[in-house]
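User: NADH-quinone oxidoreductase subunit K. Structure?
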Amino acid sequence: MENFLTQIQGVPLNHYIIFCSIIFAIGVTGVLIRRNVIIIMMSIELMLNSVNLLLAAFSAYRGDASGQVFVFFIMALAAAEVAVGLAIIVMVYRHTKSVDIESLSKLRW
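Assistant: Predicted structure:
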């Protein structure tokens, strides 16, 4: 564990903030622009992973393990989101034969 802390502290914190901001912005762009549900789910995962990396970096710089504990909770949330999201995508595809967001309007009453 000590080796990890010395490695992560060798890189300036600003680099982690800039890198995670870029990854998060790519994820937000994917959610806002794309129409495919699978790509939207991947973009949400990208945003969650950028937050995880930033929490781990802040946790290492502060020397506190609470940020790393939050990472595990976010990973559990992401796994649940993927399971529920994929189940919804499969059901939508069975009914509409498409995974396009616009095809969800066909499911209205």
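The chain has a mean pLDDT of 84. The CA atoms of residues 28 and 43 lie 7 Å apart.
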